[in-house]
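Today's session is about reading a structure prediction critically. Students often jump straight to the picture, but the first step is always the sequence itself: look for stretches that repeat, for charged clusters, for runs of hydrophobic residues. Only then move on to the predicted structure, which in these notes is written as discrete structure tokens rather than atom positions. Here is the chain we will use throughout the hour.
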Amino acid sequence: MEEDVIHYGPPASIVNQGVFNDLITAQVKIGALLAFLFRKDSPIVTSPTWTQICETVPPATIRILRFMSPEAYSIRKEAVTVLRHLAITELKSSFAPLVGELLDERMLVGNLRSEPNLMSAVTIFLTEVIQHTRGFMDFPVMMKVLRFGCLRLSDSSAPQGIVSAASRTVVYILEALSVKVRPSEVSIPQEISTKLSVLLHAMLEMMCTRLQSSVIIGERLVALKDGTANEELKQMVTLEQSRTIPVLGYLAAENYEHFLAEERLFLRGIPTIVKFGLQIIRTLNGRVPDADVMGRLFKNLCLAIPILRGDPQSETHIYKQTMEMFVEMEPHVFQEVWTKYMLMYFDCLIAHPSLMSIVQLLYNNPATTASLTGLVLRHLVDNLESLLETNGQTVAVAIRLLRLTFMSVANLPEGIDRLLAPHLPRLLVDIFPMAARSQDARNFLCVPHYLFRALGSKGQTNKFDAIHKEIYPFLAELLDGVNRALELTEDPVQREQLVEIALTTPARLQYLVPYLTLLWRPLVLALNSKTPDVVKQGLRTLELASENLPLPDLLDPSAEPVAKELVLALHRALKPGSANAETAQMASRILGRLGGRNRRILSFPPTLSYEQTTRPVTLPVEFTSHMASLHLGPTCDVAITILKDVKASSYHDAAFNFIRIQIFSLLHKGIDDQSSEEFFVRCIEGAIYAIHLSNLEPAASELLREISKSLSEMELAKEANTQSQRRFMVNSVTTLFFETIVTVLVHRPSGSDENARRLIANIIQDLHDRGQGEDKDRARWTSILIMHLLTKFQSLCYNADWKCKIAGATGISIFISDQINLGTAWPYPREIELCRALVMILKDMPTDPPAETSEVVSTMTSLVRFCNKSHTDSMQIDEPLSEEARNEMSVDEQQHYDWMHKPVSQKVDSYLTVFALDLKSPTKLVRETTQARFELLAELAGLKLADFMKPAVEKIASNIFGKPLRMFLPPTQIGYMEAMTYLLRIEPSLLSISEELLRLISEAVGLGELDEAHPPVHPMHKISRRVMVLSAQTKAAAIRLITASLIVVEFFNKHQNLRQRATALLFKALYSSDKEVKLAAHDGLKFLLTHQSRLPREHLQAGLRPVLMNLADASKLTTD
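Below is the predicted structure for this chain, in token form.
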């Protein structure tokens, strides 16, 4: 209460205030002189009177400020300046105890608080005084200064300059406190320690609130500066500018950059303040700040990064101080903060990639690298699907962070195997199915690529054995995935990625011997690569194999499929030249170690080239003395190569003009031999490549449409001139054109097929329009041409190449799209054939389902709806057909008419006959698609699903009941059980209680009771992950079948033993390590309790006993 009675201003006893003010002014002037006299090198500092000066001058200076007139502006500002200069001299130790008195605004400002310039100047001067005197302050004064700085800092509406000065004040005093509280320096009383700890916790809470306000202020200032402010913010600015004294001064300012600079200075101090606060709290053994406070600080720091845009120096400073702030956190707080705010950090990282410096700095710090690496790695592995996004920034950030994390993993001093082991299945096995579903597989393939590069970097050889034991069980699936991906891609960059993955796998050679068959193909591609580093890597691998493996194991018999390519690649590596010197030496050493075994390729059938007997297409060229012929085949190949290259835009027009001229020339001269047919096909292919070039697309599309019109008109004219009643025969040239034009959907660029779809739709519509009119024969022949083109797309669905299959599905989707309108001429009788072709695509799809499978499923659904929709009256198909009109139709037209008039309910038998057995397909997607198609047909036919499926139940059941499940492989077992589950879930039930059903359910219970395949401890006998996944899928399918069979209540009531086993299985499956099994068991128990209010005690005991027994033995408990 003493401060409340202290008088500020001239004493009341002063009679002549003017003389007193002159005295104060004179004392201030003398103070300025004393500040010059008391400099460090002055002899006064070492004189005997220095002690008396130290006891007199500082209190006198404080007394001058106290007695000064509250309204004196200029002299007060000058007095504060004198105070600052005196505090810098050797008097600073004497000023330190008096700093607490300067914290009262009445002392420094008087009644001039409304003067923002004075407030800012005084605050800055006071900060400098504190900076120089902090080392001589005692704890009470330091705590006062800290409280003062926090109060000033908490005011977000303070005038410009005050916040940054208050931030520096807090930093200065915390730095002094961190030195003063060191145990070796001084013993701190318990009372002061407690108060200081409470004050620091309050400071951290205040910093969270103030930082949040700074984020809002910064966002507004950045929006106003960039001109992106919304209407609400603009209205706030107008309101503040209309006020005499603005509440939010930064909104009323004309130059927002000054306030942004102020916020940047404040943000620079935040991590430093928190760092010192954590240091002091830990030294005092106080209560550790919880993860909620530290998490909010971290979150708001990330959100405040846009304020620092354009100031790289401040960004670098904040990132470094943030790293030191995290280092000072307790380990459990550190982990909780990063676990809770990892997703937020990643989102901010996408918007501001520079934030990655925080993680990079923490990776380089030994105190945090292991903990943060594990947390970031787990987040990235759990969210690998983010690489499927089309947002390039998201993918780039994720890949860069993965690369940094893998390098951090490789640099860990120990525990690398424990850190990587839980994530290896997704990193090495699941990555290939995800790559197949991606539009750009390279985003996923770089994951194992960067991992192996990091593990194989220099200095990591001592950790090789530990990580090899974890990677070995996945070698077979990894190399198999590489070979599957090589079959699906033609991208050279992606192929080199896959080759490097195979060749840099961290595994010892003796462990790779069983999988050499999977390694030969990548090795051959490496030797044929155009990248010198990849070639050297392949040669090193092959040389290592030739040194350490017996010769029979090296080339016989596993390498026989690629032995010829391998030896030829080695011979190509012998090419002389300075650039190939190293590779030539390595190749010669390898051939020498083979000891002549490379000559075995001479016994292989030779590769012969076929030369045509017909004359090639030539162009006559006249010279001065003679005539010559120019072969056009090589020229056409060059033109096609140019049209394939997007970058060769300057030559595109010339290449396309050459192709166009040659096509017109061929059509004019006639195509009558094999060489001209092949040349015609090559020219059409060149025009197809031009379709995908934006600068040539209109011209190329028009050219191909003109060719189609010309050929179709030729076909129609030929048939019109033919008087015979023979069947319509398509000319070979037209057939070649149709066979070639469908490949426009095969050669489409990734993710872009709009041009190709539009071209095919225009060609189909042109064909249809040419047959319109009263000439029925012309309409019939046009329909045959359209059918011929549809047949080409249908045949593509059976092609072995996946791209051709997808092109076939795309072509079928064009036929049912809104881009064309064929009316009643649409080939409706081909409905089931087209569905069968689409189903074959799903049956023949690769092991890793590509992203296009969803397009196939969507096309099939659209096809069923299109072929079974209600037709409009304009088509005139509902009118009865007279016998005379029917006799005038051909057989195909009669079938077309009958199928169009057949209701959906009459097509049920046709669909079930063809597709019913697909319900038990080993492929999950085929089963699901068949189920959806049957449900759609039942809806369109107006039938219940049970009535729709009833004719096929006996066929499906007899096929499944014919043999025991144990005779089939797991995928077939899963398909059979899923089919029976589907039939059992249809209401009313289509299956009756029988001995065959009892046997099937008993077998399902037996399959469910089998333990899931857990890998043994010995690394050389670990079960592959594929086997483990297949075992879990089989168990889940068995549980779903048991759940579905619970509907047959009477059945289970008669077989109590089987019921008890099934109940025990459901309980036991709840603690399975596989999520699919747990979900199936949960649904089963939920269904069981729905149909039964309570379980019998013996069943409940049988189900819970395994769980309770495991809980009783702590050694059996795991973290899985």
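Discussion point for the tutorial: Residues 871-878, 1014-1021 have pLDDT under 50 and may be disordered.
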